[in-house]
Amino acid sequence: MVKPFLCFGSAPRLYNKIYYYQWYVDKHRELGRTFVSYTGVTPCITTIDPEFIKEITATQFNNFTDVFDIDFAPGQTTLDVSRGDTWRALRKMMSPTFTSGKLKSMMIPIENLADSTIEFIAQKVKENPEIDLKPMMQYFSIDVICKVAFGMDTKCRLEEDPEMFKLFTSIIEDFKFDTYPKAIIWAILSHFPELLSKLGFWPASMLKMKIMTKDIMTERQEQNIKIEDFVDRLMEYKKVAELPITDEMIEAQGMVFMVAGFETTANTLGSMCYQVAKHQDVQEKIVEEILDTIGSDEITHENISHLEYLEACIMEDLRLCGPATEHDRVCVKDAIVKGIKIKKGVRIQMPSTAAHHDPEFFPEPEKFKPERFLKENADNIIPYTWRPFGSGNRVCIGQRFAMMEMKIIIAKLLSKFKLTLTEKSGLEEQMGTFALFQYNTSYAKVEVRN
After folding, report:
1. What is the distance of C-alpha 140 from the center of its chain?
2. Where are the domains of the chain?
3. Which of 3, 315, 376, 443 has its CA 20 to 30 A from that of 31?
4. Of 98, 151, 106, 100, the residue nearest 300 (C-alpha)
């Protein structure tokens, strides 16, 4: 057990002084796969035990449906914080957005945006071959989300839409607790959730995206515009939605689509660029696979499905540098899991990064070894140990979309350029991030391939 201090709960309390994910890596090495702590006065079970996690997120899901033990106002109730029947209704509403047919229609504009991004990088290379690829991937991710979900032709990838870029990145900044005042405020809110319920979970910068979603809906309705994208799906659902779903709640889903599809993707792409620059043998294997599988043809959503080694590299990068470092559940009904009695209200923390760095799950966990995730080695991966997208019934709804998007841009990038390390290369981790792995820059020398 991590002993609590009065009503303030157990450590960690001041996130500005720690690397959040590393704290859990260290604690699990010290205390084992499962330990107990307190978040404020709420008892918490923290676990990386795959059998325990399977019970929580899948087998006994009905006993652990929620992420928070509080209800938010309709305008703040997004899919990822919704509860019970509200979550079920929202999940049912949003799932058709990610069917195979819908994904296929999304990939063509993504290909075009990837090509445009690569062309822009090629122009930057002429000025200076040493490039920070993190913002390039952020630009690309923003343009993709705006285009395929909201029908907006933003131009962040050309550095011509600074206001949109500022809006997206300000949200990430708002979720950092890198100063004492921010850390103390978050400690109070997280330890006393009734305050969080009244004040709201999402920052003002994110609520602007809800307003933007509503404005797009209004414009389409007035002008009778139909694009068959995410916004159209929300508009259709408004016509038939019943309680507990409200119009304001439907409009709020634009927030989570934008944010969930932005920094997590950009973060993974930036760290992936670093990994292939660092491991030249891996980079050349990816290029060889592209040449052998696709040859001189255009890289498209149809032929990237055959790039199995590239996919394994992305999965290994998500293991080492996964942007989301934890997913949580709350017990909504008294339950027994692996002989442990769990009362209603107990929080379950499942640190994914701690599991990803456990040598019993992933031998030599600090090494970048994509071979772990090749199909012939699939039996070596213990279920519920690799969880960059969460697990079970509430696994990330956009997982396939994100993987396809990342495969397209990385395949196009590496078929055009060779990446090598420079003195500025490296992922400098940031303190003060809650359940996120974040870094600011990902420098590499970028050279056009023959």
Report:
1. 15
2. 6-448
3. 315
4. 106
Closest residue by Cα to residue 203 from 180, 220, 186:
186
Q: Where are the alpha helices (DSSP H) in 180-262?
A: 180-191, 193-199, 204-223, 230-240, 247-260
10 Å Cβ neighbour count for 375? 9
- d(CA 53, CA 57) in angstroms, rounded, equals 6
Where do we find the tokens 């990994």?
A: 275
Nearest by Cα to 390 from 332, 316, 326, 294: 326
Q: How far is CA 114 from the centre of its chain?
A: 20
Q: What pLDDT, in 10s, does the model give residues 149-166?
A: 999 999 999 999 999 999
C-alpha span between 381 and 388 (Å, rounded): 14
The CATH classification of domain 6-448, taken from the options 3.20.20.140, 1.10.630.10, 2.60.40.150, 1.10.287.370: 1.10.630.10
pLDDT digits (tens, 9 = 90+) for 49-99: 999 999 999 999 999 999 998 888 899 899 999 999 999 999 998 998 888
CA 32/CA 11 separation, integer angstroms: 17
Short-list 234, 190, 201, CA closest to 83: 201
Q: Is the pTM of this model over 0.85?
A: yes
* Cβ atoms of residues 324 and 388 within 8 Å: yes
Please spell the DSSP secondary structure of 42-106, one letter per residue: EEEEEE--HHHHHIIIIITGGGS-BS-SSPPPGGG--TTT--HHHHHHHHHHHGGGGSHHHHHHH
**CB count, 10 Å around CB of 113?**
26
Contact predicate 280/337, CB 8 Å: no
Q: Do residues 277 and 103 lie in contact, with contact meaning Cβ atoms separated by under 8 Å?
A: no
d(Cα 84, Cα 132) in Å, to the nearest integer? Answer: 43
Nearest to 137 by CA among 156, 152, 160: 156
